Amino acid sequence: MRKLHLFLFLLSIQCFSQQFKFSGSVIDKASGEKISNALVVLTELTENQLVSFVFTNNQGLFVKELENKKYMVEIKHLGHITVIDSVLVDRNIQRSFHLNRKTEVLDQIFLITESRFNVKKDSVIYNVDYYRTGQEKKLKDILKKLPGLEVDRNGNVTSNGKSVKRLLVEGKAFFTGDEKLGVNNIPADAVDEVQLLDNYSEVAMLKQFEDTDELVMNIKLKEDKKRFVFGDVTAGAGYKERYKINPALFYYSPEYAANFIGDLNNNGVKSFTSKDYIDFNGGILNISPTEYFKLNSDQFAQFLNNRDFTNSVDRFGAGSYRKSWKKSDLSGYVIFNDANISTASQTINEYQTDTPFKENRQSNGEQDGRFLIAKVDLKNQPSKTKDLRINSLIKFNNATDFDRLVSQSTVQNTFLESDSEIQSFSSSTNLLYTSEINKKHTYSIQANVDVQDNTSNYLWNTDRLILSGLIPLEQDDQVEIVQDLKNSNFNIGSTLKHYYKISSNTQLQSSLTGNYLPNTLETTSFQLRDDTSTNSFNPSGFDVDLNYNVFRSILGTELRTEQGKFTFKPSLLFQYFNQQIDQTDQVNRSQWFFAPKLRVQYDITNSERLYFNFNRNISVPNSQQLVDRLFLSSFNAVTSGNPQLDYRISERYSLRYSKFNLYKGLSLNAGLSYNNQIQGIKSTTVLQGIDQIRNYIDFGLDEKSLNANFSINKTLGNIKYGFNSSHRFSNYYQILNEEINENKTQNTSIGLTIKTLFDQLPTLSLSYQKTFNNYDTSINTINTFQDRFAANLDYEFLNDFVFEFSYNLNLYKNESIGVDNQFDDSFFSLSYDPENTPWTYKLTGTNLFDNRFRQVNSFNDFLITDRQTFLQPRIVMFELSYKL
Predict the structure, then answer these.
(1) What is the mean pLDDT of the chain?
(2) Percent of the chain with pLDDT over 70
(3) Where are the alpha helices (DSSP H) in 700-781?
(4) What is the chain's alpha carbon radius of gyration, rounded to the nearest angstrom?
(5) If we measure between CA atoms, which residue out of 779, 884, 707 comes closest to residue 231?
(6) Which InterPro entries does the entry link to (predicted)?
(7) Contact, 203 vs 432, CB < 8 A?
(8) pLDDT digits (tens, 9 = 90+) for 215-252
């Protein structure tokens, strides 16, 4: 550890060496007044390469840190004649420049800035030739040099703090649209322009009517690079039989494209992540919060989210194809993944009941997960005023989980083996037709048919009668409990929209939406006796048989008007819900709701904006919350629903400010949001030792949260500085043993970052984040503190070598219960990529300090948990790649 700190310290000294300040002023020669916002352009004379530029401040002054070299200096200002001079920066130098006025005004500033990047209302366009040095191999290497962009190690891109959601090449989705694939694979020498397109709409004629808040990146290719084959094949091996095989092959042309990516490894890298899973189901911006929570918490997402395991084997394959005609595009892709992981953990649970006690758990598991996703997409645009899009997506996944658990406590001891298998199939077909009747009237119709079937089979094998008194178990040599669950969901819907352009700055949108959502849920629970006969739990209130149908219709109108720099978008939505619940008893209820929305946007400049949003959300209970019978939710929990549950109503207010200035290297974001759960659904818990009985009730007490965040990044010379802070306050209620307890939480986080941007020296990034948490319950008050340190190094040297290193240290302290732990993670790679050969050689290492477990502490109103999850050991591999 000390050697690492010394290494980083000496490196930082090296990064800051040989830097001198070049400062001065720009003065109007006729009046003697200093000129603000004059552009100072610096070009290195030896290599004739643009180094940087800076604007004078309100006092006409500028300052720039430069290396010990000779530079050409250009001073430009609107209405003045450009001055060109040279300067040798071998010490701190101060100069004054006098500009003569000119009678003919030329927009010189914008001419020079457009040659490097151009900022418009919803786009930023970079000409990458001005940032290219010739050492870039992939698109990622170029993006790292563009002002305002950040690229992480996996290839995820952010622009001035906002995440890029999709990648296009020449206006068409690259592969599946996942930016990581293109960022890590597109060759750098093929790229001509990088375009960041905010508020992006696939249907161009709807751009003026709808705000998507989606940021996409479009890559424009060089004219001689629009038909090419690229890719590489990588093979790697390491000690303890570690291996990696990763072919990535791409063909691109304007008419058609074909791609294939494969990955086979046992080094702990998951080719398909939970973020990818959300993106392939529509993306976080295009699904409701309820649907997002449902996706992120299902069994398959939990499998993808599991980052802590002792062993892993991942098999991945993906292929895509696109064919383009003059007015149509046909594309599709298939993705398959098969993964096996082994897990182990040790947990201490402290139950904060009237009679507190501890439970020790040991768990060892084997998980297998496989899935298949396939999509076909047809786009047809017969004219500029008509657009048709049809896509169909199917998804199949199968997951098995075997877990051996030992639970020991003063209340009871349990040995349990659980074996589960979950199969899921879903399909989604969508149609969108848009037609512009004339300049004032545009129509669109959207229709969808969604189908989802889930089948889950659970087997618990234990040495005692668990959940005593809750399920009617009989004594046997081995107690085997079986639960089968089947769940089917359908969604048949359509939306008709009419866009009326009242004037050039005012539009009116009217819409009518209808959805029919039939759902079924069935469970069967029983004990399997040693003689293979069964002991049904049905007489004790188990076995769910629910038919749940929802019809929803929405009548909406939205006005969009631009008044100077303001854009107002008030919306009025009238929603009708009809619920039909058929189980032991039948329930049929209907209700109208009024749900207003408001969006206000103030465009201070093209790169500085203020947003205000308000919306009211209405949602219905899900099927598991409505059942009138019992089902097993784990080996120590029984759950039932409540068919009388009402609707959920919440409101959200948000204020957001953003500003960026690529010329001055500035990015600033601030936000404030307030959430209020007016009418909700609350789970209740009754504890009997470690056993839990759960139910759901309507809950009318408000649960509120207030969030504030601020971040700023500023580039000064060759150093980028960053500061961020956030604060969250919330209150929520827990119902334990029929007592309602209010909990209050406060979370404050403050962080600092610094990053070097030298051309010939290593790129070093350092960050520190401090987090304070206060958790106030009816029983006690818990204070926790967390410190996170991160260091990342990227160094290109001797033309053909690249060294990367990252280190993360997490310190956690819970002073209320005396818990203090730390965890660090590290990675390195050294690659050799000689210029005149297609071969690349690479040495990589993960978990360099060979950490054996990750320790996590968590808590709620009645339970404090301290868990150690065991990890893969240190992995060092040698990789060999061949580039096409």
Answers:
(1) 86
(2) 91
(3) none
(4) 30
(5) 884
(6) CarboxyPept-like_regulatory, OMP_b-brl_3
(7) yes
(8) 889 999 888 888 878 888 999 999 889 999 999 888 88
User: Is the pLDDT reported for residue 308 higher than 90?
Assistant: no
Name the E strands within 29-106.
Answer: 39-44, 49-55, 61-67, 70-76, 83-88, 93-99
Q: How many Cα neighbours within 13 Å face the side chain of 833? A: 17
Residue 493, both tokens? 């819907």
Cβ neighbours for 676, distance < 8 A, ≥ 6 positions apart: 650, 651, 652, 702, 703, 704
Residue labelled with tokens 């250009």: 74
Which residue in 337, 407, 401 sits closest to 372, CA to CA?
337
Q: Which domains does the chain have, with CATH numbers?
A: 20-111 (2.60.40.10), 116-226 (2.170.130.10)
Query: 3-state DSSP helix/strand/coil percent for the chain, to nearest 5?
Result: 10, 65, 25
Q: Judge contact between 659 and 688, C-beta under 8 A.
A: no
Structure tokens that stand for 557 in this block: 């109108």
SS3 of residue 571 by DSSP: strand
Q: How big is the CA angle at 537 (ends 535 and 543), to the nearest 5 degrees?
A: 130
Long-range Cβ pairs for the range 344-347 (8 Å, 24+): 344/310, 344/869, 344/870, 345/308, 345/867, 345/868, 345/869, 345/870, 346/867, 346/868, 347/865, 347/866, 347/867, 347/868
Helix (H) or strand (E) run with residue 280 in it: helix 274-280
CB crowding 505-544: b at 16 or more within 10 Å, else e: eebebebebebebebbbebbbbbbeeeeeeeebeeeebbb
Alpha carbons within 13 angstroms on the beta-carbon side of residue 137 total: 21
List CB contacts of 560: < 8 A, sequence separation 6 or more. 209, 506, 507, 508, 509, 567, 568, 569
At 290, give phi and psi (nearest 5°): -65, -45
pLDDT band at 527 (very low <50, low <70, confident <90, very high): very high
Query: What's the gap between Cα 444 and its chain centre?
Result: 30
Residue in 601, 548, 597, 604 with CA at minimum distance from that of residue 577 = 548
For residues 313 and 266, give the distance between their C-alpha atoms in angstroms, rounded to a whole number. 4
Could you give the 3-state DSSP secondary structure of residue 5?
A: helix
CB 295 within 8 A of CB 275: no
- Beta-carbon contacts of 532 under 8 Å, excluding residues fewer than 6 positions away, are none
89 is written with which tokens? Answer: 């920066």
Kindly tell me the burial class for residue 355, based on how many C-beta atoms sit within 10 Å of its own C-beta (0-12, 13-18, 19 or more). exposed
Q: What tens digit of pLDDT does each residue of 410-446 get?
A: 878 889 999 999 999 999 999 999 999 998 999 999 9
Whether 776 and 744 have beta carbons less than 8 Å apart is answered as yes
Q: Read off the pTM.
A: 0.80
- Supply 38's token pair: 């004059």
How far apart are alpha carbons 834 and 796 in whole angstroms? 12
For residue 460, give both structure tokens.
């618990």
Helix intervals (H) in 536-665: 623-626
Residue 275 near residue 230 (C-beta atoms within 8 A):
no
Neighbours of 313 (CB within 10 A): 16
- What is the spatial distance between Cα 94 and Cα 71, in angstroms, rounded to a whole number? 14
* Residues in a beta bridge with 394: 374, 427
pLDDT band for position 37 (cuts 50, 70, 90) = confident
Tell me which residue has tokens 């170029």.
142
